[in-house]
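Students often ask why we bother predicting the structure of a whole assembly rather than each chain alone. The short answer is interfaces. A chain on its own may look different once its partners are present, and contacts between molecules only exist in the joint model. In this exercise we take two input lines together and write out one structure for the complete complex. Read the inputs first and try to guess which parts will touch.
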Amino acid sequence: MIKSVLLKKTELGRLIEKLAGFATVVAPVAKGVRNFSFEEVRSGKDISLKYIPTILPPKKYFMPQREKIQEFDKKAIRWTPVSGNGFEKLVIFGVHTCDLSGIQFLNRVMGEDPQDVNYLARMEKITLIGLECNDYCDSYASCAVMKNHLPSGGYDLFFTELEGSFFVDVATPKGEAIVRGTGLFSDAGETEKKELAGLRAAKEKIFRDEVNVPNGKLKEVFNRSFQNEVWNDLDRRCVACGNCTNVCPTCYCFDIQDEMNLDLATGSRTRSWDSCQNEEFAKVAGGENFRKKRGLRQRHRYMRKFNYPVDRFQRYSCTGCGRCSRTCMAKISLKETINTLTEEQS
Amino acid sequence: MTQSLLESPYIVKAGKILNTKEMTNLEKYFEIELPGREDLAHDPGQFVMVSIPGVGEAPISVSSSPTKKGAFELVVRRAGAVTGAMHQLKPGDAVGIRGPFGRGFPTKMLEGFDLLFIGGGCGNIPLHSLIAFVLDNRPRFGKISILLGCKTPETRLFVDELEQWERRPDIFVDSTVDQAGPGWKGKVGLITGLIPGVKIEPQKTYAVIVGPPIMYKFVIQELLKREIPDTQIVVSLERHMKCGVGKCGHCQIAQYYCCQDGPVFTYNEIRNNHEAL
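Now the answer. The structure tokens for the assembled complex follow.
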């Protein structure tokens, strides 16, 4: 199997055109001032190679905002599960390492028994082409402390921009098929390998833990923080809009709803993104609300990133992408929360 | 596609309602048969997701014992859209059934022990499944005490059975209501008031409690005072499950998914949990 190849920068456009011949290709596209979005592209010119994390992470392709999971027929008394309907081959180009980590986490969660067949049916049809960040996107990111500033798998191909070409790591047979099938790639020589090593070494100097606690201590910090004053502060500030969870690459909570068709005999059941920040989220039929206060809902969000998943999935689910802080209307900052918790404990 | 649609966790079976009965103003009883009279094969304490097409799905505890074959029973409080629609249904009507889901009561572990059942309000419904199972297998268990509470005499559930249990010499039954009504001759007061009336050998006893959150706080304290080990205090927690398969997040209790890890927990498992009670 091929391990690493090169693609001339001038050939990127041709690569996108060739990929678009067999699949829908999506990539980061500029959407006004410092906003980017993964959208369908047909040529290299559409793509923003220098982008900060997109408004929504690529989870929207694995688990769309609304997805039909079932059709029913009231008269025939029949419910039919639906998965992957009409979803064709998709190539996601230009996925940063933070978002690759988010997808790896979701793969883990959705692959765990009982498996989420709707997610897995889409995952099967997706090819992931990663793109390295040579420098920080902005001050909201905390990818270094989450150890996501460097690639650690989760892709089919991974691109690193060098002086004249992209250095491409080939990780899977799917990725190799693209390299062979398009005929646009050439062998990587020693010069480029050295250039890549130099770039990575330089990155180690740029990317430093963004908070005052190392990765290995984060769980402990949160595990000791259930009664912390920080949650009362967030209780006063949070407006419970749910933006933070919508834009999070590892938030996957959903609601399930039925809709009747116009014939009033058939209909469908859909799942749609939901947010633990919504007041109704943990409310039960009798009226009891197990997370009535916004501060408790914020605590829950943080615990689901830094505490609970470590025992269950052996990893943090925060990727360090910074989206929650970037999008928060109340300027609640993840880095600030962590620093405050740590300071109060020391 | 590697996954076949048959493996979807969202497969709904068409259940047929055999019998219904109004139990109280708010609670209605349903006897439901699955296609081919297939057994639900549940453990006491497990729940099913009930579908009303076009209205939605709601989690409902099974109230019958798995010793009952060919059909199972639900007692449903009218509280929202789905349960409201269910209350309109008659014998012969269809409902969708998914499940059973969750971890039920540890029936194997209870064998050989004295059992103290404490139920409050709606909690008496899942508890009924276990009590019925235990009474169907009476020789396998030690002394049995049942303490039941609810708001008013009109909201009492399983009244006919309760009278039968009270006549049995091999079980101790006591009950109370928060507020008496006209003609009520029974006890009035909190359920904790019934606990001193039970002889408890703590090491030999499992206490199974199902009720509203406020009831747990007080009842558990009483039982700990009576020196029942926290591993032998069993509760069932109410949350709003939407998917039933540990994904949608609605029923999460700190690190636990109530729909998969629960709804039944020992007090030992949740005593340090910040979101359980």
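Check your guess against this: The first strand of chain B starts at residue 13 and ends at 22.
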